[in-house]
Amino acid sequence: MPDPTPDPQRDVRPTLEAVAALAGVSRATASRVVNGGAGVRQPLVDQVRKAVDELGYIPNHAARTLVTRRNGAVAVIIDEPEFRIFSDPFFSRQIRGISRELNAHDAQLVLLLVEGSGDFDRVTRYLAGGHVDGVLAFSLHTDDELPAIIRRFRVPTVYGGRPEHPSPGGDTPQVPYVDCDNRGGAREAVRHLVSLGRRRIAHIAGPRDQTSALDRIDGYHDVLPDAGSELVVEGDFTTEGGARVMAGLLEARPDVDAVFVSNDLMASGALRVLRERGVRVPEDVAVVGFDDMTSVAEAAVPPLTTVRQDVEGMGRLMVRLLMERLNSDTGTWPESVVTPTELVRRASA
Hints:
Blueprint: H1 8-11, H2 16-23, H3 27-34, H4 42-55, H5 61-68, E1 73-78, H6 82-85, H7 89-104, E2 108-113, H8 119-128, E3 134-138, H9 146-153, E4 157-160, E5 177-180, H10 182-195, E6 201-205, H11 211-223, E7 232-234, H12 239-252, E8 258-261, H13 264-276, E9 286-291, H14 294-297, E10 305-308, H15 311-326, E11 337-339, E12 342-344
Parallel strand pairs: 1-2, 1-3, 3-4, 4-5, 5-11, 6-7, 6-8, 8-9, 9-10
Antiparallel strand pairs: 10-12
């Protein structure tokens, strides 16, 4: 039988003093190296890291925070109901990109969901507590309290999507954002429908309290400036919302021969209604979506022509901008980034 007597040498956790002794440096030097501090010559850094590996030393998080003034955590704040976040592949893709990039920077993701106005108090308390080094916030709405909270506590932040709220004047800098070319992508989608000979093109828009939806409406009108208001109907970015709006559109305008839809989930709902009504796609009505969520677009019947945006890549870019801000010695703010879009042609148009 194995000896149940504990081995004190085996069970004692390696200390920073042991690392310093093995590396032949002072405890203060070892502390600066393992906790991310600066001002240590590279040969000594290498000695300390070698000692850490040999001993299996695990740095103390509280000590690291004192040295670097960093928590090693970033808050991701999404202002959407929980059911949307866990049912819409857009959010899972963006969070995946953010998570992978944060892992590369040895930082922890803290997910904060905002479903109602009462949640802002909780978010305010959390940010005020200094638990995170920065914030990544997306799916903002025009009535959001979040931008004001961020300005109040001066938390380094990057927005996902162009914010509706410009930063005020004075010494408050413009908060950078990462977005795709929503307006340009919408123009390309509608031009494609026009090139197919479609003349009565409707638009199922997203909620008008989000800039992505407004930009896509503008792109639609760039190509069709004379389109009547009855051809632009507002949805809610969900499959059921797209089905409901498509049904109403067919009642109001049975002569529609094409629809540009502001996201793929609504487009999948619209396709279902068209199929149920016996409307052939694309022969009778051509349909183009937006996002290129392949799990949705490729599974649609017929497969959905859509505008692709690199959602996961945009999540990575958000982290890179935030890290650029956090690591800046001058405190300068990086420039916002707008990524290109691409029309992906499938069978629906």
